[in-house]
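Reagents: none. Just compute today. Ribonuclease domain-containing protein.
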Amino acid sequence: MSCNRWGAWRAAGAALLLVLSTSLFGLSPSVGYAKGPAYQAPLDTVAVAQLPPQGRDMMTLIYQGGPFRHDKDGVVFGNRERILPAKNRGYYREYTVRTPNERSRGARRIVCGGLKPAAPDACYYTDDHYASFRRIVQ
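Predicted 3D structure written out:
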C-alpha cells in the first residue's frame, strides 16, 4: 500500500472516530475538552432537615436576604466545575456554611441559583468545597 493510500485510510478512520464519539457521548465536534460532555448525571438530594444546623441557619438567611457573616456570601459562583446545571454567569450565588472550630471559611457551602437571590429557583449543598453537590429539597 502506498503512503498516499495509507494517509487516506488514516484520515477516514479519524473522521469515523470523531463521528462515533460525538454520537455515542453526545459531544459536539466544536466543543473543546474544557467544556465537557453535554450530558449531566442527576445530582443526589438532601433534605433541609438533614443539613447541619449551620446549613439550616444559612438557608433561613438566604430566604431573608441576609445579613451574612462573610463578605463573600452572596457573590457569583462561576460553576467552573460544571457539576451544577449549566446556566448563564450570574445565575448562581454561593454562601458559607460555618464549620464549628474552623478558623477559615471551611469547605461547606450552599450554592443557590435564580434571578432573585432571596427567592432562589434551586439550592445545592457541598461539604467538600465544590467537588460534589446535592440538591436541597424540602
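The CA atoms of residues 60 and 131 lie 24 Å apart.
Action item: order primers for follow-up constructs.
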